[in-house]
Amino acid sequence: MTPLQFEKLYEHDWAELELLLDRVLQRSGTRAERAAVSGARLAALYRRACEHLALARARAYPAHVLERLERLTAAGHQLIYQQHEFGLARLRAMFATDFPAEVRRQWRYVAVAAATFMLPTLVVGVLVYRHPELILSVVTSDTAASYETMYSPAADSIGRVRTATTDWMMFGFYIRNNVGVAFQCFAGGLFAGLGSLFYLAYNGLLGGAVAGYLTERGLSSTFYPFIATHSAFELTAIVLSGAAGLRIGHALVAPGRLARMQSLVRATHESAILLYGVTAMLLVAAGIEAFWSSATWLPSAAKYGVAGVCWTAVICYFVRPGRATERHAG
Amino acid sequence: MTESRTRLSSLPEALAPSPDILDTVVAAETPEGILLELRPAGLTARFYAFSLDWIIRLAVIYAAAIVARFTGGIGIAFWIVLIFVLEWFYPVAFELMRGGATPGKRVFGLRVVMDNGLPATAAASVTRNLLRAAEFLPFFYGFAIVSMLVRRDCKRMGDIAAATLVVHEPRAVSRPPLDQFMPVVPARPLAPQDQAAVIALAARAPTLTAERLDELAALAAAVSGDQGRTGRAVTERVLGVAQWLLGRRA
To answer: Would an 8 Å CB–CB cutoff place B118 in contact with chain A?
Structure first.
């Protein structure tokens, strides 16, 4: 069969497939025409085009024939086999069960990440509390002084020097800053997990130094009520993104029975759900930090009370939801 | 072109391309058993696309800053949130749309797909973009650039981990013009790949200068029994063979 005969024989099928793909992918035609596209017909035409492409390649038909068939099959393949993972139901299932279940499944990484974050916090916190001059080896003297101003009881809002700006501005600032830190803790996992360990330890150390310093300066009555509530979401989220980073680092270093790249790809795709959860938690944290934690008119007791509720809620959230489905799945 | 077709016609070779072929085509097998050709985009094309995206984002941020100046505190707040969103989710949003490409990539004819040729999934898009936080180290996307340069499929680390690929959109191939020359019966039987090469020459003929066309046709003169000769007449006979191979008969 010559190329011209081949084209003439199947032109009808290809034109129809082109039209159907156009209707769906480019949204051409009227609404009624788009609704009339039959999935079964499209799939049948797609499979036929696949056969034609195989034939055309085996017979080394001219490039323009191959190109047309390749374009048709590639578009059909994308349309027929693409995964749909959006939708409200999916989102609900994710936050109701999948996210906490995944955190539990990765509890070893979460434990290591939490330890890497908290040990420097405690050690450096105590050290700086005992020897406040050590703060200068972590931050500059100007920064240390500005921390003191921020958390002084005389300030009309805590945690920042309030100018004419609003809480919303700080919301934007906290979001940008915290998400940056969290994503760094995750992405550092690519360097065999060492980057995650570094960022976790570094941020823990920084937090510990500031806490130790401010406590020593006698500002604990403003500092701790400020951080107590939003830290339930913020610190947990940073530890979880660090855990996701450690997971991909470990998958890279010790792939087990998989090929190294396969192992990395699998760990990364399974970590995505942690990142969705982490981003949501950081949004909540930034909201609390900007609108609740910084308000000076609230008594400390109220803040500690709400902080207790938040911490309990976060811990319960990760311990409880989704157990039933896990048992069900065996 | 002929090289890759030959390779694709036999499956095991195509899946493990031999290193001596100077080509970056990645074959993705569909469930129907055919191989889709994906052409990974190299550093240069991706750099242009990235730069354009960067300029677009900068322009949006700048324009929003002007608006924010007039609206005051709340405007500045939204401006900061906007910077945050553009920083991390600009590529994700565009990659998950139909085109699978940011405006910069679209201008330069690139798109993001999974390794198997399918549209990028949400998980893949999010992870490949968040991993930028590691790749822009030590400076100016250093790790990403090294990764793209050393790999045959030009993946950066985020692409490796998310199993995605940045590919060139396929370019349309021109049809050989029909009815231009009288069909000429080939002087000897031609292998399928040789037939395809002669037809490809005919398809390219309108884009070549007459002199260059003569040179190229002279290389293929054996198909019309004119080996060793060159000139306009030989070219016409070679292109006539292409007409015959396409299926035209006198």
So the answer is: yes
